[in-house]
Amino acid sequence: LDTLEKWVTEIFSEIPNNGLPKPSFGHLTQPFDTPEFHKLYRVVPIRKVHSLSITWALPPQEQYYRVKPLHYISWLVGHEGKGSVLSFLRKKFWALALYGGNGETGFEQNSTYSIFSISVTLTDEGYKHFYEVAHVVFQYVKMLQQRGPDKRQVIWEEIQKIEANEFHYQEQTDPVDYVESLCENMQLFKKEDFLTGDQLLFEYKPEV
């Protein structure tokens, strides 16, 4: 560590600090508040595949990185066991797979908005009933909203433990990629969370 610190000091200490604050675009609210966003688009795919994607534009979620509400919701939506959306759609022979969430990239999550998407891989029969598939997805989201998260702390803690295990036992990454990732984290999180802010869940806040 002493050697590494010496190298970093030699290489980077001459880079000037211009003292400017991190740019924020929080004043540019509701970028998707346009009629073009509230539409159904049919796209002809190159491969023979049927996919239904539903996208919501939400307020910025960066500030809630210690809670990760979108990760929590995507966990519930993407559940594949009894009573899940995918389980129901599979019994109807309408869907093969379902996933939802936010990629946490700059395009999907930034200081202006956060995207939340649910994508369903449809069967040929499911494609014929894609309106009903969309209706089922919205029903499930509505159910989550009405029941609220108060009784689901156990689920949140389960997610927290799984993410902690994945963090502690992750494979070693390429050093250059790791440094690049840390530099990005330095723009987003508090100093004590540079190493863990993008992976771990820290606080359970049902109101968020």
Query: Can you count the helices?
Result: 7
Number of domains: 2
Please name the CATH topology of the largest domain: Cytochrome Bc1 Complex, Chain A, domain 1
SS elements, strand count: 3
Radius of gyration, whole Å:
21 Å
Structural class: alpha+beta
CATH architecture of the largest domain: 2-Layer Sandwich
CATH-level-4 superfamily name of the largest domain? Metalloenzyme, LuxS/M16 peptidase-like
* Most strands sheet: 3 strands, antiparallel
- Strand arrangement within the widest β-sheet reads 1-3-2
Low-confidence segments: none
Beta-strand content estimate = 5-15%
Gap between N and C termini: 39 Å
Summed over residues and divided by their number, the pLDDT gives a mean of 92
How would you describe this protein?
This protein is an alpha+beta fold and 208 residues long. It folds into two domains: 29-147, Cytochrome Bc1 Complex, Chain A, domain 1, CATH 3.30.830.10; 149-207, no CATH class. The chain is built from seven helices and three strands. It has a three-stranded antiparallel β-sheet with strand order 1-3-2. The model has no long low-confidence stretch (mean pLDDT 92).
List the helices and strands and how they pair.
Elements: H1 2-12, E1 50-58, H2 69-77, H3 85-91, E2 95-101, E3 114-122, H4 124-128, H5 130-147, H6 153-168, H7 175-188
Antiparallel strand pairs: 1-3, 2-3
